[in-house]
Write a structure and sequence with these properties.
Blueprint lengths: L16 H12 L10 H8 L3 H11 E5 L5 E5 L1 H12 L12 H13 L4 H11 L9 H9 L30 H5 L17 E8 L8 E7 L5 E6 L4 H15 L1 H7 L2 E4 L8 H5 L10 E4 L9 H13 L11 H12 L11 H8 L3
Parallel strand pairs: 3-6, 6-7
Antiparallel strand pairs: 1-2, 3-4, 4-5
Helix pairs in contact: 1-4, 2-3, 3-4, 9-10
Length: 359
Amino acid sequence: MEIIAKKERKENSCFDHDKRILLEGYLLGKTGFPKITGRTQLARIFNCDRKTIYNEIKRGTVEHLKSDLSTVMEYNADYAQNIADALNENRGCVPKIMLDTALARELRRLIVDMNFSPYAALAELEAKGWPSKTRCVEKTVYNWVNGGLIHGIGRKDLPNKGVKYREAGSTRRYSRAECAAHSIENRPKEADDRNNFGHWELDTVKGGKDAPTDCLFTMTERKSRNEIARKMPDAKGKSTVAVLDEIERKIGSEAFRRIFITMTCDGGSEFMDIEGIERSCIDGRPRTKLYFAHPYTACERGTNENHNRILRRFFPKGCDFSKVTDDEVADAVNWMNCYPRRIHGGKTPAMLYKKYCSF
C-alpha cells in the first residue's frame, strides 16, 4: 500500500501588523533590511505558503507619490493592516447582548441611571435576579460598552469615563521594522517568569525640556531587582553603546554574556543601534540579545519604570544632569541596591546580585 506523506503544515501563516512591518522592510530594503522580493524566499522567512505571500503583497500594494511627483506601486504595511481590519470587522457570531434586549435595558438602567460601575451592576443583578437567561462577567460588560454594543451606554458612562481604555492593538503596533524584528514576543520564556538571572530592562532618565541633553542610562535586573545607572552626554545610540562597552571592558566579555543575557527596552532612539548593543566590543561576537517592548506599554518594563521613579527622589524632573556628579549617581544607586525588599523577604538586591554573580 502506498503511503502518502502529509504536507508539512506552515505555522504562523496569518499576518499581523508586526509581520507586515517586517515584510515592508524586506520588500523595500528599508532600515537595514536586505531587499528581498522573491516570493519563495519570503515564504521561507515567514514560514508560510508562497500563495500567502502573493495574497498579502497584492492586498497591501498601493500607489505612492514620489518627491518628483511621479507615482510608484509599493507595498505599505499600514494600508494592508487597514484592509485586513476592515475584512475582519464583521467576522464572528452576533454578541449575546445584541439579542437580549431585557439584559441590555437593565444594564443601561443600572450604569446610566444609577451610576453603577459594571462590577456593581452585575453584583446588583446577582442579588436581585437577572432579567433573562444570559449571564456575563465584568470584562464582558466592558467589552460590550467599549464596542458600542449596548444602545444608550458609552465610555463616558463608565466610572473612569473610558480614559484608561485602549483599543486592542491601537497603540501596541510597532512603527519600526527593526523593533518588530526584535519584539518582546520573541523573548525567551525564562525572561518572563523571573526565575532566571540575567535578564535586564533598560531606559533613560532625562532632565526637563529646557535642561541640557545629559541624562541617566538605567538598567534593572528582573530577578534580583539590582540597579545600574550611568551618566550619558545625550540620549543617542552611540552613547548607549559606549556605556555598555565600558561595562564589558571592566568585567570581561565572558562575564558580560553570563550577566546580561537579554535586554528589554522601549523604542527610543537611544536603543536603535541594535548591532552595537548586541555585539561585543572585545571580540566582535554576540554579547547579549535586545528586545523591544510594545509602544506605550511601560508595564512590560515595569521593574525599571518603578526604579526610575525611585531615582526621581534623588533627581527630580527638571534636574540638570550636567551638574550631577558620577558619585551622586553611584550613591543613589547604592541606596537602592542596599534597600531591603519585601519581595525578597527582607534581603537587598545587592545581596541577591552578588549571589547570582558568583560564577
